[in-house]
Structures are given as C-alpha cells and as structure tokens.
C-alpha cells in the first residue's frame, strides 16, 4: 500500500555520544552502542533495516533494533517525522503497543531499540489466510479499540492504522508499531497523511482532523479483516479518494449483520454521527452488539483465549 504524507524538513541536532537518551521510559535499558551485538536481519525499511540484537553477555534476552541512516532521513526531509516518533514512544506504554526500550546514535546512524516481535504483521498473515473469521475479526478489532482509547486519553491521534503496522506477538495478541505519523492533537490538525485505502474523508477534504480519523480507520480495518479486501479500492489512489468522499461501502454476501452495523457506525462521513466521536465516546463502540460477549478487562489482561486459527506460525 502507498503512503502519502506532507513532510517538512527539520534541523538535525547532534546530541553527542552514542548512549541511550535519559528519556522517561519505564522499560529503558541502559547500554552503550558498543554493548549491542547485532544478529540476523528481520527486514528492510525506508531508511535502514531491523535486526535481532542483544546486550553483550546476555544472549538469552533478544531485542529488535531499527537502524536508520541519518543522511537518508535528512535528504528525504523526515527528521521531524523520526523525532516525533521518538517523543511519542517515550510517553506511551500499553499491552497492545510494542515495548520501546531506548534510542541511541552515532555519527552516521540512529537506532531504536524495541521488543522483538517474531509473529509477523497482520497484513502478511491476513493475505496468507485470505480473510479472518468472525471471532478473529472481533478479537483483533477489540485490541485496536483498546489502543485508540488509551492513545486518545493522552490526546495522541495515531493516523496510520493499516495491517502492516500491526504485529502479532508470540502469545497471539497484537502489538501496534510505527508511530511516525502519530501526533498530539488537542484541537485539529491539517497535515495530510495515511494510506489511501484507510484515509478519512475529512483529511481528503482538508477540513482539519483529530481523533475521529482513527475510528474511521478502525471501520476500514474491521471490514477488510472479515471481507478480505478494503471497502474502497482501486489501482489509482485518486479514484480511491473519490470513492471515499462520494460512495458508501458495499458489503459482500454473507457479511455478518452485527459487524456490518458496527462498521457502518464507524464509516460515517458526518463526524456528528461517527461512533467514537459522540457524547459517550468509546463506550458507544465497546457497547455495540458486535462486542456484546467480550470482557474488556480480561482482554487487557490477556486472559481471553486467542481464537482458533490465529497462530501465525502455523500459516507460514
């Protein structure tokens, strides 16, 4: 999937040294770059790669380290993007968000140290099985509800929900990654960002946007998980945008009626009618009949049984 973003350049500030910053991170690991042992590559990104790593003398504790080249970040005017992600990660901690352990740099690279997630992303898993069953859709969607409730409580809008940004942990629960487009928003913001199939109409219409965009993207994700494809799709992003602004989703035959009602309440172009943005806030979403059988507290405590068929390792 393509991404679109309005990026502004930033000034690079040399913070000196290669140690971890002393940010407010509960799980911060104090180590120097020389203490890190780099292992196998887990994948390539826009500015570098992600590898397995561990601290010297502690090979039993594995982490992931994202390495990014400073020159590439500056050239593409993504300095603010990266600095913003670092600031957001410093202030959040949640069972369904990737654990962040620290940041370091040397003359050529910057490094993000995070928990190691071997389960792969939701996009790859979803593509392998073509579509999720109803229980999986409810289970995964409910975790996104919990994440957004937490972030919005801190006035953080995520703005980049898509299957590629959701990892599956070893326990079968989700972990959200990539907070580069997340932003602290108390009123409205006008930055254009997101993936074409997931972008909310108010962003396209440049009306200013805030927390409701995340609930729109949840509607898109839930639809795609159950149907196997997003509700608005086309080879040309401009045609996707036209569909988002001018058309309503069509639901495949056999699409669960409760799920359909849930998605419809989220994919309201009129913000005054969109679930999550009404006077009851997230309670309208959690109280919808699509989730009538879920115990939200047990979900957060990871006491709910992972739905059958949700083992990503069995698929690849």
Automatic annotation (TrEMBL):
It comes from the Eukaryota. Residues 36-291 form the Protein kinase domain. InterPro entries: Kinase-like_dom_sf, Prot_kinase_dom, Protein_kinase_ATP_BS, Ser/Thr_kinase_AS. Signal peptide: none annotated. GO terms for cellular component: cAMP-dependent protein kinase complex. Belongs to the protein kinase superfamily. This is Protein kinase domain-containing protein. It comes from Halteria grandinella.
């Amino acid at each position: 999937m393509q991404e679109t973003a309005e990026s502004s350049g930033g000034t690079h500030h040399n913070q000196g040294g290669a140690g971890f910053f002393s940010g407010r991170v509960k799980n911060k690991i104090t180590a120097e770059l020389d203490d890190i042992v780099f292992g196998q590559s887990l994948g390539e990104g826009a500015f570098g790669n992600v590898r397995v790593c561990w601290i010297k003398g502690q090979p039993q504790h594995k982490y992931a380290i994202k390495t990014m080249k400073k020159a590439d970040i500056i050239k593409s005017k993504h300095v603010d993007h990266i600095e913003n992600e670092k600031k957001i990660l410093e202030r959040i901690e949640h069972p369904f968000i990737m654990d962040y352990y620290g940041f370091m740099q040397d003359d050529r690279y910057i490094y993000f140290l995070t928990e190691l997630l071997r389960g792969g992303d939701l996009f790859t898993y979803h593509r392998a099985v073509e579509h999720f069953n109803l229980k999986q859709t409810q289970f995964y969607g409910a975790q996104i509800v919990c994440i957004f409730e937490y972030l919005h409580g801190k006035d953080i809008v995520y703005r980049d929900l898509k299957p590629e940004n959701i990892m599956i942990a070893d326990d079968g629960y989700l972990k959200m990654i990539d907070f580069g487009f997340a932003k602290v928003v108390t009123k409205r913001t006008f930055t254009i960002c997101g993936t074409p199939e997931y972008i909310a109409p108010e962003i396209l219409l440049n009306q200013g946007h805030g927390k409701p965009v995340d609930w729109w993207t949840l509607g898109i994700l839930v639809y795609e998980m159950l149907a196997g494809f997003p509700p608005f799709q086309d080879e040309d992003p401009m045609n996707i945008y036209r569909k988002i602004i001018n058309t309503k989703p069509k639901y495949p035959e056999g699409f669960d009626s409760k799920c359909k009602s849930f998605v419809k309440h989220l994919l309201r172009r009129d913000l005054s009618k969109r679930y999550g943005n009404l006077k009851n806030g997230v309670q309208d979403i959690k109280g919808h009949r699509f989730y009538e059988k879920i115990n939200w507290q047990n979900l957060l405590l990871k006491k709910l049984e992972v739905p059958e068929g949700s083992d990503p390792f069995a698929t690849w």
